[in-house]
């Protein structure tokens, strides 16, 4: 397709006269069929880098993304522009899936959005290989690197899956990639360094500011910042849900219409708050980092980190939500030494103990040649964060211990759509006697049942049962409600000595912990440095700023002591020690290890705390003022 025709598509379908910096370079490489890595900061227009080539190239283009809401919004927007597109993810119904398959077979589809899990589906893989694929765009490509800021195990298999489709060209995209993460992406997808396109992370309309103040003065500092002229609409980021709600209430008491937003709120309540902020019904949203992904609001005038971000990636990505309209906007961080201690404690507290790691590996390798795992149960019963559980499973996979073997569901509830006996008999008559009896029982019960138990933990039997139930659902005979996903693995080899493998995994966790702690330290090192804040931030991503920005707090000569203020520690009292001893005496399974007890006493939300709702206990967070390591020492002493 000629440049003239490309320009026509750009204008007719997308309403643009020209491309942004970086977009032209990326699109030119893709149209020349050169595998490309595009690192375009938040607001840089990544989506057009695959949407425009998809409309210009012959054949089907695929976009792989883990962000379901973003996929849904893009498909709806593109459909209104007349672009033949569809999406398949975990929310797609069987009817929608069948319709999409027909659209692919007929060749009428130009752009298909898939979650990584759906791309791995054997039916989808077979169909895509038959129809031929022009372009595969892998969005959020940093998820492939376990050293990135949001590693996803489903991305490990993507390079192999993508290559198996033999697309004409591969495009990987991300808004934030450190030099190490970018190198991982290029290696995985065989991208030459010269085809790594990265636009500047520097945005001259953003003013970076750091304010240091003791913990007791932070709310005053926040209020003063919000009240300054031209500082709203504003996003205020805080670490904990309780802080988010407290800050929203405080601002409201001072006459500023603010709302709280965090993952603990019901989905409809979150949607209502988000829509209210985007439509300017209230000027301030106080949120955890659960808010912002895929949200494009051009006139956010300030982003305030009430608690500092956990990494330079988070700092620049969250700050990048300000001033997308090009107007002057402020990115402020309010910090002290307590914040540094708190962030380091969160990282240290996440680390699984040896007992938890051993329990997970025993569960996996005790099942024989095939293993069925519930990520939810492994995470919550062992109090291991999901992201670290995923790292463990990914390590086992890449080191050749296990191979993914599909997935299934634990719980099944079959709701008949026809209740009369004659219809029931007709529905069941075509099945063998044993299957007929099983299906009759499933249709008669009004409660969910365990597929694992029904299939006697036999993977093949479970898959056959689900296939039968899917057939009934497709025929309009029943409504199928499946819940609690399971992942299946084939065990290629078993450890001769489990203790050695536990040690390897513990070392891997320790390496991750060190990596995360280094990123926290990098944030604070930049914050207190006399170097230009903008230059420090873009330098983390390998970019050299030609001159100082001239407007950040460092450039304005604001003096910040390298020794940040820290609250005076309040020592452990005798009464508190007795309450800790009492908790140990209760022998609660959820507090069965020193690590779990320490997380509970520090008020750190962890998988077990959430599953057993221990955050409602009177002693929850009792020692939150102390560093996690100090509390862990107390817990170890009491468990001895």
- Main sheet: strands, sense, barrel: 7 strands, parallel
The count of β-strands is: 17
Name the helicity range.
40-55%
CATH class of the largest domain: Alpha Beta
Q: Give the radius of gyration.
A: 27 Å
CATH third-tier fold name of the largest domain: Rossmann fold
The named CATH superfamily of the largest domain: P-loop containing nucleotide triphosphate hydrolases
Rounded mean pLDDT score: 89
Structure description:
The chain has 27 helices and 17 strands. With 640 residues, it is α/β, with parallel strands linked by helices. It has 4 domains: 3-198, Rossmann fold (3-Layer(aba) Sandwich); 206-344 and 516-540, 3-Layer(aba) Sandwich (Rossmann fold); 369-491, no CATH class; 574-639, no CATH class. The strands form 3 sheets. It has a 7-stranded parallel β-sheet, sandwiched between helices. Strands 8-13-12-9-11-10 form a 6-stranded parallel β-sheet, sandwiched between helices. β5, α8 and β6 form a beta-alpha-beta unit.
Helices, strands, pairings?
Blueprint: H1 3-14, H2 23-31, E1 36-39, H3 48-56, E2 60-64, H4 68-80, E3 85-88, H5 94-106, E4 111-114, H6 116-119, H7 122-131, E5 133-138, H8 158-164, E6 169-174, H9 179-189, E7 196-198, E8 206-212, H10 218-227, E9 234-237, H11 241-253, E10 258-261, H12 267-278, E11 284-287, E12 302-305, H13 312-319, E13 329-335, H14 337-350, H15 354-365, E14 370-373, H16 375-382, H17 386-398, E15 402-416, H18 421-428, H19 433-444, E16 449-450, H20 451-454, H21 459-474, E17 478-491, H22 498-528, H23 533-540, H24 574-586, H25 594-602, H26 607-611, H27 628-639
Parallel strand pairs: 1-6, 1-7, 2-4, 2-5, 3-4, 5-6, 8-13, 9-11, 9-12, 10-11, 12-13
Antiparallel strand pairs: 14-17, 15-16, 15-17
Helix pairs in contact: 1-3, 2-3, 14-22, 15-22, 25-27
């Amino acid at each position: 397709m000629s440049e003239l025709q490309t320009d026509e598509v750009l204008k007719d379908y997308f309403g643009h006269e020209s491309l942004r910096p970086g977009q032209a370079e990326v699109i030119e490489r893709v149209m020349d069929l050169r595998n490309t890595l595009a690192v375009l900061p938040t607001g840089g227009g990544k989506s057009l880098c695959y949407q425009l080539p998809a409309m210009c190239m012959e054949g089907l283009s695929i976009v792989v993304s883990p962000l379901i809401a973003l996929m849904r919004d893009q498909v709806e927007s593109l459909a209104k522009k007349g672009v033949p597109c569809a999406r398949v993810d975990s929310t797609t119904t069987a009817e929608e899936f069948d319709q999409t398959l027909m659209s692919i077979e007929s060749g009428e589809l130009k752009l298909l959005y898939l979650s990584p899990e759906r791309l791995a589906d054997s039916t989808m893989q077979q169909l895509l290989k038959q129809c031929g694929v022009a372009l595969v765009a892998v969005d959020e490509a940093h998820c492939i690197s376990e050293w990135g800021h949001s590693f996803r195990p489903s991305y490990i298999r993507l390079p192999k899956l993508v290559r198996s489709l033999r697309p004409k060209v591969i495009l990987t995209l991300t808004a934030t990639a450190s030099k190490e993460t970018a190198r991982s992406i290029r290696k995985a997808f065989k991208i030459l360094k010269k085809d790594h396109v990265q636009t500047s992370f520097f945005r001259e309309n953003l003013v970076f500011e750091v304010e240091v103040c003791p913990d007791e003065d932070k709310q005053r500092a926040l209020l003063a910042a919000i009240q300054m002229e031209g500082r709203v609409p504003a996003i205020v980021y805080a670490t904990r849900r309780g802080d988010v709600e407290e800050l929203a209430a405080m601002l409201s008491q001072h006459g500023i219409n603010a709302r709280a937003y965090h993952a603990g709120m019901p989905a409809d309540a979150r949607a209502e708050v988000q829509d209210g902020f985007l439509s300017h019904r209230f000027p301030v949203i106080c949120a955890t980092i659960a808010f912002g992904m895929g949200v494009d609001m051009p006139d956010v005038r300030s982003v305030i980190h009430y608690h500092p971000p956990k990494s330079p990636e988070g700092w620049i990505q969250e700050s990048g939500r300000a001033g997308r309209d090009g107007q002057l906007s402020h990115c402020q961080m309010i910090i002290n030494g307590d914040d540094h201690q708190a962030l380091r404690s969160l990282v240290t507290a996440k680390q699984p103990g040896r007992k938890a790691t051993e329990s997970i590996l025993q569960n996996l390798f005790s099942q024989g040649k095939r293993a069925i795992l519930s990520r939810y149960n492994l995470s919550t019963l062992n109090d291991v964060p999901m992201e670290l559980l995923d790292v463990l499973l990914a390590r086992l996979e890449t080191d050749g211990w296990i191979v993914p073997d599909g997935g299934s569901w634990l719980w099944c509830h079959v709701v008949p759509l026809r209740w009369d006996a004659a219809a029931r008999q007709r529905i069941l008559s075509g099945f063998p006697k044993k299957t007929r009896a099983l299906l009759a029982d499933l249709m008669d019960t009004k409660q969910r049942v365990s597929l694992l138990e029904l299939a006697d933990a036999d993977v093949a039997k479970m898959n056959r049962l689900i296939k039968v139930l899917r057939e009934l659902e497709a025929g309009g005979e029943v409504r199928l409600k499946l819940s609690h996903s399971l992942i299946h693995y084939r065990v290629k080899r078993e450890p001769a000595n489990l203790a050695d493998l536990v040690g390897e995994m513990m070392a891997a966790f320790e390496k991750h912990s060190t990596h995360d702690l280094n990123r926290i330290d990098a944030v604070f090192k930049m914050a207190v440095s006399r170097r230009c804040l903008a230059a420090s931030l873009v330098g983390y991503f390998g970019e050299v700023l030609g001159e100082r920005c001239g407007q950040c707090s460092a450039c304005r000569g604001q003096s910040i002591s390298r020794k940040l203020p820290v609250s005076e520690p309040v020592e452990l009292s005798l009464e508190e020690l007795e309450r800790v001893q009492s908790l140990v005496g209760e022998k609660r399974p959820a507090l069965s290890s020193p690590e779990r007890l320490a997380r509970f006493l520090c008020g750190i939300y962890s998988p077990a705390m959430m599953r057993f709702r221990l955050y409602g206990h009177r002693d929850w967070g009792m020692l939150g003022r102390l560093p996690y390591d100090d509390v862990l020492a107390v817990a170890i002493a009491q468990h001895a």
